[in-house]
Amino acid sequence: MPLDLTEHLISSETIASGGMLTVKRDQVRLPNGHTSQREYVLHPGAVVVVPVMENGNLLLEKQFRYPLRQVFIELPAGKIDTGEDILETGKRELLEETGYRAKHWVKLGAIHPCIGYSNEVIYAYLAHGLNAGAHQRDEDEALEVFELSMQEMLAKIDAGEITDAKTISALFLAERYMKNNSL
Amino acid sequence: MPLDLTEHLISSETIASGGMLTVKRDQVRLPNGHTSQREYVLHPGAVVVVPVMENGNLLLEKQFRYPLRQVFIELPAGKIDTGEDILETGKRELLEETGYRAKHWVKLGAIHPCIGYSNEVIYAYLAHGLNAGAHQRDEDEALEVFELSMQEMLAKIDAGEITDAKTISALFLAERYMKNNSL
């Protein structure tokens, strides 16, 4: 019989809210009958897009990420709005952040970035057949859009210049999909 | 001239602490001069280990992750204790969780799992030359240790059965290292 690893909710409280993050603290019953507590961030979910250009290059962003006080190279991504279809989130974020629209969208799968202390799930899409337009970033959204070939992007991962887990994971899924489907 | 994307601290407050998570809310000055606020989790950093057995199989864990109410397949990993050397964290976590010790440790790089709202960094190691022993899990730590071949693990990623971003990212780094070094 497989081990039952499930932890059961006893009670729940909100320890931070009102700003950007909602943080919960739950009392739980462990599989061995002991009690413990779990703290975690509530997240609406997000979408990450792997945009592949006609020449095979990938569209990327440089963005300052305050928690680490550092500029990161990332794939376009963003949070799902309340009630929004996840494919629409992908299309909206790609357009807003880069100005591109894509003819073809392929669902690659889901990624969980932070299973220890967040319920965030990130849905990954491959977008190809791209058409350039004007980005629709609001004036407080500072980011730089640029292109890399797949080889250049892999070299930057090897060199430790790309370390964002959603970007590495989504690229992994995209690379396997493209290999398996001769894209 | 490259765009300056830096956001500067104006003031900082702690909005949750005392339990497992410390959460900060900082007022910041954006590159365009506007002010905004950033909320994020303070994290001590962690280590993830890719343990490769003599037969080429990888050592994995099944663990219930309460924020998502779901059992995940993960590589062994754990938080860095205060003042602890990161390689020691890797050795300690591998031993505690699986009972294995490794003769050879290779640093693969760093991963940032959650750049939007956490300062967590996860250092990834490849461990090979493994010797089995007894695990040292405390009685509240419920997890199941098992093996998969690289092909089985990749198939589980393709099938959406492995979705943990640190696990996918560390495997990506390990696979590239092993390919480049004929391991």
List keywords for this structure.
homodimer, 2 domains, Nucleoside Triphosphate Pyrophosphohydrolase, three-stranded antiparallel β-sheet, four-stranded mixed β-sheet, alpha+beta, 3 helices, 41% strand, 183 residues, 21% helix
Explained architecture:
2 copies of one chain form a homodimer. The first copy, chain A, has 183 residues and is of the alpha+beta class. Chain A has 2 domains: 8-42, no CATH class; 46-180, Nucleoside Triphosphate Pyrophosphohydrolase, CATH 3.90.79.10. The first copy, chain A, is built from 3 helices and 10 strands. Chain A has helices at 86-98, 150-158, 165-180; strands at residues 8-16, 22-29, 35-42, 46-52, 58-65, 70-74, 77-79, 101-111, 122-131, 143-148. In chain A, strand 5 and strand 6 (70-74) form a beta hairpin. The longest helix of chain A is centred in the last third of the chain and has 16 residues, at 165-180. In chain A, 38% of the residues are buried.
Helices and strands of chain A: which structural class? alpha+beta
Main sheet overview of chain A? 4 strands, mixed
Stated plainly, the CATH topology of the largest domain in chain A is called Nucleoside Triphosphate Pyrophosphohydrolase
What is the CATH level 1 assignment of the largest domain in chain A? Alpha Beta
Q: What is the CATH homologous superfamily assignment of the largest domain in chain A?
A: Nucleoside Triphosphate Pyrophosphohydrolase
Q: Cα-atom Rg of chain A, whole angstroms?
A: 19 Å
Helix content of chain A: 10-25%
CATH architecture identity of the largest domain in chain A: Alpha-Beta Complex
Identify low-pLDDT runs of chain A: none
Looking at how many chains there are and whether they match, the oligomeric state comes to homodimer
Proportion of residues in β-strands of chain A = 35-45%
Number of helices of chain A: 3
Q: Work out the largest interface and the residue count of each chain.
A: A-B, 68 and 68 residues
What series of H and E elements makes up the topology of chain A?
Answer: EEEEEEEHEEEHH
**Global geometry of chain A:** globular
Number of domains of chain A: 2
- Give the end-to-end Cα distance of chain A, rounded to a whole number of Å: 43 Å
How many beta-strand runs of chain A? 10
> What is the averaged pLDDT score of chain A?
95
Which strand order does the major sheet of chain A show?
Answer: 7-4-9-8
